[in-house]
Amino acid sequence: MLGLFALFLLLPALLPRLGYTYLGTEVMIWAIFALGYNLLLGYTGLPAFGHGAFFGIGGYLLGMTQKWVTGGLALPLAAAAVGTLLCGAAVGLFVARRRGIYFSLLTIAFGVMFWFMVFVFDAWTGGEDGLTGINRLALLGYPLRDNVPFYYFVYAWFVGATVALWRIVNSPFGQVIRAIRQSESRARAVGYDTARYKWAVFALSGGFAGLAGGLYALARFGAFPEPMSLAQSGNVVLMCLIGGGFASFYGPVLGVVVFLVLRDVLSTLTDHWLLAYGLLFMGVILFMPEGILGVLRRLRQPAGFHDTAAAHAARGDEAATVPAPPGGERGA
Amino acid sequence: MTPDLVDLTTQILNGIVLGLLYAIIALGFMLILGTMEVINFAHGVLFALGGYFALALQPHVGWWGALVLAPLGVGLVGFVLERGVRRTYGKDPLFGLLFTFGAALALEEVIRIVWSPRGYTIAAPAFVAGRFEWGFLVYSRYRILVAVLAVVLLFLVWWFLERTPYGAIMKAGAHDSEMVRALGIDLGRLRSLVFSLGTVLAGVAGVIAAPMWSLKPTIGAEAVMPAFIVVVIGGIGSFWGAVVGGLLLGTVSGLSNLLVPRGSILVMYLLMALVLLWRPRGLMGQKSVLEL
Fold it and tell me: What separation in angstroms does the CA of A18 have from each of A13, A137, A152?
């Protein structure tokens, strides 16, 4: 973890030479989003789809608070995170008792609902044009308008969020959600109120998405509807998968880097980068569902040791305090 | 007659026609969902493809010819798609969803490349052009044809599912695939058939919807969401649930067009939330294997 933080601490010295001054900031913002999302996907095994909605809500909450309520920087960011957490909690009431594919279906529907709300309430959100005029202001005398101070502003949040998520994942709460991923019925039989845990995870990961979305709105000086679209909601899922969110805590961060760089390269190469993106999606699912870190882990393990369904076996060995069920029950 | 009542009747009729169409899209989606446990994200884009195929075919084979051939073309695309999807069977349900999601993005871009991003308006066939007048009521004759076709299609699907051995095998396959395989039925072929059939339904809906909505690359995404909601409202795995859910959603969105024109799309989601609060598995849903 320290290595990761050190790397991002030093990046601004390297990035300008590669022509990616702003990309580093964007990587950290998406990393907060993806790490929070992986709480659901990788750790609890809940295939939420439509999480981009919370990212977008965070941006709008930040923008609306800054414009019409308090101004400033700290309160709007808090409003973004806490407000989105509450939205997540509300949606969570509907979805927490579901799992598997039915859970996906519901999260898709609610995600799209928020997307349409942006257009219906366009007096507040700016509709198609977005909510513009968001101000980065200044912190400790450094104007955040410049990209380098802003980079370190986001860096501080990135470090904070990563440490917080790490603590969550390795807390007793984290052990329970891993147990739910392995077998919800077993976790319930042991005595945990699994629906309540799933609800809490959903709200929490919504909160992190809101924080990331708020930072993203600051980065772009405005909140726009397009991160909330269903197509964009797929991004965060793909980021987690490419990097290996099932296999490692850091999978999503690697995935974000790979995804954003790849998108940059692809969009300069071709006008039809969506086609390439769609095919990439299909390719990842077919050939590398466990992600980069998952493949690495598999290669490092002695032959014959690893499960064929590497995706769900990958982290089984870590969940030590809860007895592991024999074989995955999520397959079949 | 007061104009208000005329508006009301027209919107209700619109809602019913729309609802029947939603039911067809939702049934195809549900066949795939129920049998393969795959959320077919590409369903909307296949619906759009139906419309575009018809656009290309109509000058050559006429409207009725396109009504038959375009969905078959879509079914072929579905058949090919299933070859990839089948590698995700039995894995995390997310994988099938993501695979078809990628396919949806790619196919939508293909539509943009082939037909350009602009919209097309498609004329209704000549024999149903114009309006139908009956007392105070003036209604599009094409929409009446749509309703009739939709009812015929729904009947065919019902007959196939409930009155033929294939329907029985499909339902059994959704319930306990291992047992079905043990009885000597080729599960791979069954799944391939169901997937193609589901996409054919999307294609038919696309062909008949195209003259009502203008054809544009994003039309698929707009059509698939109501189908999702219909499935959630009606309950997974229930034929009548899809029909009732479709009609309910269609009528409610027709009426809300009249009352809250700007928010009518949100009313659909409100309806979904209300139904879920009342019956978490949908109106006619039963506890299913999908929840495990």
Answer: 10, 27, 19
Contact B200, B75 (CB under 8 A): yes
Rounded Cα distance, B47 and B36, in Å? 19
Q: How far apart are the first and last CA of chain B?
A: 55
**CA nearest neighbour of B225 among A108, A88, A27, A241:** A108
pTM, whole model, 2 decimals? 0.84
Ranges in chain B, pLDDT < 50: 291-292
Each residue of A233-258: pLDDT tens digit? 888 988 888 888 787 888 899 999 98
Quote the CA–CA distance of A112 and A103 in Å, as a whole number. Answer: 14
The alpha-helical segments, DSSP class H, found in B164-291 are 165-175, 177-182, 187-209, 219-234, 239-259, 264-278
Of A45, A280, A285, the CB nearest to B88: A285
- Return the C-alpha torsion angle A73, A74, A79, A81, nearest 10: 110
Q: Are B246 and B26 in contact (CB under 8 A)?
A: yes
Touching B: A residues 54-113, CB under 8 Å? 94, 97-102, 104-106, 108-110, 112-113
Q: What DSSP assignment string belongs to A244-275?
A: TTTT-TTHHHHHHHHHHHHHHHHHHH-S-HHH
Percent share of chain A, pLDDT over 70: 85
Which residue in B97, B262, B272 is closest to A49 by CB distance?
B97
